[in-house]
Amino acid sequence: MNNIHSPSTDVFNDEPQVEAAANRLATPRPHGRLVRVGAAVLCCFIAAGCMRDGGTTDAAPQDNRPNAPQTAPYYLDTDSDYYRNLGKALGYTDDPFTRANIERLQQTPVAEWLAGTDEQTYAQLDRILPASAEAGAVPLLVAYKIPNRDHLGGESKGGNGSADEYLAWVDTVSDKIGDAPAVLVYEPDAIAAAVQMINDGDNEGKDERVKMINTALTTFKDNNANLAIYVDVGHSDWLNTDEELAQLTGLLDEIDPDGDLITGLAFNVSNQMSTEANTAYAEQIKERMGRDFYAIIDVSMNGAPGTDQIKEWCNPKGEKLGTADDAIFDAQAAVEQAFIKTPGQSDGRCGTSEEAAGVFDGALLQRQASKPE
């Protein structure tokens, strides 16, 4: 894309002090140039460049969003296949530096991607929502089902077959969430792909997508009082020219002409750009729009030294685990940091992995968690 914690925020640059899941729901990875906590714990992965390089506690936007959960820890779903895979990975990992990072991942909440069949999505929600409520935590979800979701031709083709099917899916997801507290990253790549539709002369496709997104966001706004939504807008190394920024902000205005649907934006989902660069990019968009937004930045894979220089998106060589400031959803934070992409999950049969998109790759995880060369 472009498809959010052993307790310490210190930077560890020295040696630490101390199989694919067959039944796992495969979560496709958003496309390339578009280049997941239980208790309130802090984390810093043992990797050079893991220091906090962008602010997360700036003053919140003046007009508080109408829909959002109260401040609470993100849900740490240790019963999921992903966390079981981390435990298995420790069984074949000898390097102490890498082991320490995988152990930290075991305490780091990751997003739950709603990207499989309709039945799989509904089963996910039926399991996660009651469990997170019992834990007093907030689940971090990703909606990734829009028709033609990987318009840019990457490894994550799919989504619902039509606008009607998609909006029926949205209705059911909204009904299942109800008044439960949750955070939702909305449709990675969808708006960036709409920019591409404009450039390809596909105005009909663009118009249909704008209408779908407007209808979906309206549904969530009207029905889910405790759901904070962050609409994905790519990352700092993508739609960043004057023309592209004008197209992007124009689409946001077209989707939300009254300024009450899009109150949060998501950045860097499944990409490697630095928190600092994405924070600055968020400010650019705010200035052009003339209004504030809350922001969430995916920091799962931006821990390598010089991470902004990684231009490949598909399991790129050199990507390293990043660092989130904490494991808490702060309802008043202007900028949230979270693990949105799942560490160890392949982007597709490309780069440094031979696994299909969405499949856990233990060797890939070891490379991501290892010390930078």
Could you describe the 3D structure shown?
The chain has 373 residues and is α/β, with parallel strands linked by helices. Helix content is 33%, strand content 9%. The protein contains 9 helices and 9 strands. A 7-stranded parallel beta sheet has the order 2-3-4-5-6-7-9. The protein has a two-stranded antiparallel sheet with strand order 1-8. The protein is globular. The two termini are 24 Å apart. Residues 2-29, 31-43 and 46-57 have low confidence and may be disordered.
Flag low-confidence runs: 2-29, 31-43, 46-57
The helix content, as a percent range, equals 25-40%
- How would you describe the shape? globular
Give the mean pLDDT. 85
- Major sheet attributes: 7 strands, parallel
Distance between the first and last residues' Cα: 24 Å
Individual helix count = 9
> Could you tell me the strand content as a percent range?
5-15%
Q: How would you classify the quaternary structure? A: single chain
What is the element string, with H for helices and E for strands?
A: EHHEHEHEHHEHEHEEEH
Number of strands: 9
Q: Could you say which structural class the secondary elements and strand pairing correspond to?
A: alpha/beta
CA-based gyration radius: 19 Å
Strand order of the largest sheet: 2-3-4-5-6-7-9
